[in-house]
């Protein structure tokens, strides 16, 4: 019944190879290939229109790809209709059946698998307890808060014990506080149940805190597929560097060895940054890797003027002007203790040390790309 | 674009897909057989003589050369134009009162405006005869002019079209953004400037589409001119004469086409204009905040009271006429007019026929239109077939009842047609009524289905729930209010229609509304009034029962709609 169009790739529970998707002339997915391990939590992260939802819908079979293949658990599902694929799904809109009680929502699929009504209700009740809303079982969706509704949706998606859990921006409609709480619960729940999960999100904090690995996407392409730590500390290119976290990028020259030059300033590259590209490059530094010192001299240190101090709760961001380096403002993130200790004020002069191991060097593609 | 852009790969159909596609084909087949094929038969018949020989456009030449028909065409235009102008003026004032004033009793006034919807168009016409006819009680106000002819037709048509005009206009008037009015105020725009720059552009679409709809409705109406037209010829009554009295089917077909053309043009124009309609009311809009203003509210109240009084007088006179012993000589009250045995041997069975037809049309029509709309919304793939079904579902609104009925004669009465056996039965009346009223239920059903998040179906699919379980347990309960609305719409419209059935009844399936026309022709005014009132009372009862049912149903099984 299932056409053998190739051999199943050895590793990976879900393997996508060379996926392309066109909407008319619009190229929505460009040669997407990736492999998700069994039990892994993967986030598709990217700006709107980057193709992350398109990719999720292709995996579910809702918007079939134009070409390429998808393998799930050793079986080629590329041509299967959604009904024959094995997934549970959670939407941003919750998508609960409005006229069914919470418990009937969760039991809706079970009833059609031959499970008795009583067993279905018992199972549904257990799932509701697992997501922490057992006491609301008899209510209707409209009587619940957004966070509670999304818990029902998650319980319902898990009810059929799917091999794959697909989450399409599940937390985006919730307000900030509920969002963080449900994020933590989702994290724990997924690790406990062990279901392979894919979540689409445009919120980097969500992706960084939830995922085992993140797929960063842009304009239909996979820019980087790696662990949250690697994505943050070793962004593969300028796009990832700027999209995930905060980074100041300055044009410069790299000698391809152990140093870069920006204007007249030479900056040493740390041991971790060896092997940077040669020639015209963009050199990036994250605000937390810019260390402010009273003495304005030393290696990798420039003199800067404080333009502004922006207090943001747990930390503060200092905007600096360093004419020997660049015309755009530099940003440094400081703890409150450091802020007090340095006694910063607008207009004063200070040393800014760029940590050698925290400098990012990206080739400048220009128009050649 | 390069031609080698790869299209989406083809995903094989599941059992559910196949079942839904088969159903889609079935609904499309019904619409094809009961709408497209008969219309084709009509077009084809217009180019043939009475023996079925092709004669090109000869019938059309005869039409243009026939002075009575040419006059009828002119009269139809004149009547439709005048009635539309008066209706729009009155309805605009009434709708303004309902939506833009703080006059008391607005919900009550709204219900009053809807009264004519519950009666056949014959009822106001008959009431006019009692009121303004040769022996009418208030004929003096016509200053010697006869109510039979243009005066009576226009008054009757205005009453007949009034509810629909109020409905559309009050919808467009109610949808406005308070912020625009606040902005106008801060920019120091006077009332006139505000009206021309904010109010008028906001209701622009309603102001174009309402006259189009009313014009076509009047242009193609049979009931009013049949009762009160006298010897004043209009196309709707001429087509009937050509076919029923003169058996000139070729000419009947030509007149049918002339009735069809303005309707189709108006339909096309409306669809065309819809494209330019920009939603001025968005999710961010602030609903209108209308503050009390004494002069405006009093003026609106006076105007609406006047209109409501007119409508009540009309209905009242129909009821009064139905209770009169011997009009106009003996005004003593009696119920004998409701014993229809004297007017026709069929007696009350006429009424039972109408009730049966309305019940069957409402029941089968609701099922067909809802399932059709659901299939268009939910079938996976087959976009071409869905677009075609959508087109066929919106087309009936552009086909006048008389034209549909006539085309059924040509199509189903042809001995070569295997469906010939249906001719003259209740089945063909049910079918023609369903098709005639198809579009509005289709729109109601589509709107209700669009309220249901599409993701729900994706979830159901991921839960391996078959489509029919999803339909039964979620979609149907969710759409129940719309389904009840559709049922009521079909019941009342079928109960009151004349034009859709006048060509199709047989001796066994004679209907109450048709009997009214016949009795009126033979001078049995009081019985005709009694039957009109019976139909009116039935419609009112059904609508009342619908409201009660909905209230109880909501409180019991739709608890989920409450917060």
From TrEMBL, chain A:
GO CC terms: ATP-binding cassette (ABC) transporter complex
Domain of life of the source: Bacteria
Keywords (A to Z) from UniProt: ATP-binding, Cell inner membrane, Cell membrane, Membrane, Nucleotide-binding, Translocase, Transport
Domain ABC transporter positions: 14-244
InterPro entries tied to this protein: AAA+_ATPase, ABC_SmlMolc_Importer, ABC_transporter-like_ATP-bd, ABC_transporter-like_CS, AminoethylPonate_ABC_PhnT2, Mo/tungstate-bd_C_term_dom, NA-bd_OB-fold, P-loop_NTPase
GO terms (BP aspect): quaternary ammonium group transport
Record flagged with keyword Electron transport: no
SMART domains documented for this protein: AAA
Molecular function, one GO term: ATP binding
Family annotation (NCBIfam families): PhnT2
Protein name as catalogued: Iron(III) transport system ATP-binding protein
Origin species: Paracoccus versutus (Thiobacillus versutus)
Source taxonomy: Bacteria, Pseudomonadati, Pseudomonadota, Alphaproteobacteria, Rhodobacterales
Automatic annotation (TrEMBL), chain B:
One annotated Gene Ontology cellular component of this protein: plasma membrane
Single Gene Ontology BP annotation: transmembrane transport
Xref: Pfam families: BPD_transp_1
Subcellular location(s) per record: Cell membrane
Keyword list, A-Z: Membrane, Transmembrane, Transmembrane helix, Transport
Transmembrane segments: 21-43, 77-99, 111-132, 147-169, 214-235, 247-269, 298-328, 348-376, 388-411, 423-449, 529-549
Superkingdom to which the source organism belongs: Bacteria
Stretches assigned to the ABC transmembrane type-1 domain: 73-270, 351-554
Presence of keyword Transmembrane: yes
Membrane topology: Multi-pass membrane protein
NCBIfam families in alphabetical order: PhnU2
Family membership noted in the UniProt record: Belongs to the binding-protein-dependent transport system permease family.
PANTHER family reported in the protein's UniProt record: POLYGALACTURONAN_RHAMNOGALACTURONAN TRANSPORT SYSTEM PERMEASE PROTEIN YTEP, PROTEIN LPLB
Protein name: Iron(III) transport system permease protein
Lineage: Bacteria, Pseudomonadati, Pseudomonadota, Alphaproteobacteria, Rhodobacterales
